[in-house]
Structure formats: structure tokens, C-alpha cells
Design a protein that fits this description.
The chain is mostly helical and 91 residues long. Helices cover 81% and strands 0% of the residues.
């Protein structure tokens, strides 16, 4: 049961991370109110790093910002470690 909830959580948070990059890119192009960078990075560090990274590259958004090119991959590595730990702990 725990593993199913974990999978659902990561699917949802990565979808949010991906969508937030797309939405922010669209708003940037239209010169509208933007999603704060803190929020974009928060989604990544809450577990949505893969979705955020895919969104960055698919939408060509934040790919030249050092803060994002380092932080998002670090968030992915962090959560890979967390997942490995949880899967071995709850085996």
C-alpha cells in the first residue's frame, strides 16, 4: 500500500512540476504575471524534479539560469536517494 501511495505522489508532483514550467514559459512569452522561481524550485524539491527537468528542456525554460541548471538535477538525485532508502526500509 505504501509503495502505491509513493508512486501516486511522485506521478502527481512531477506532473505539477512539468506543468508549472510550461505555464510559466507561456506567461513569460505573453508578458503576464509569472510563477515565482521559489515556487518552481519548491515543486522540484518536493519530488517533482524529473517533471521540472523535462519541462525545462521541452519548453526551453530556465535552461540558462544557473540556479535551475544545478538545483533541479540535485533535487532529482536527492529524491532518487530517498526512494531507494524508502524501498529498502519498507521492503
Amino acid at each position: 500500500m505504501f509503495i502505491k501511495l509513493l508512486i501516486i505522489y511522485y506521478i502527481v508532483i512531477n506532473s505539477i512540476g512539468f506543468a508549472s514550467m510550461g505555464i510559466d514559459k507561456r506567461k513569460a512569452v505573453k508578458h503576464q504575471w509569472r510563477i515565482p522561481e521559489f515556487t518552481l524550485l519548491l515543486f522540484a524539491f518536493l519530488g517533482g524534479g524529473i517533471g521540472s527537468w523535462l519541462g525545462m528542456h521541452l519548453f526551453h525554460h530556465k535552461t540558462h539560469k544557473l540556479k535551475f541548471t544545478w538545483s533541479v538535477p540535485i533535487s532529482v538525485a536527492l529524491h532518487i536517494g530517498i526512494i531507494i532508502y524508502l524501498l529498502t526500509y519498507f521492503k
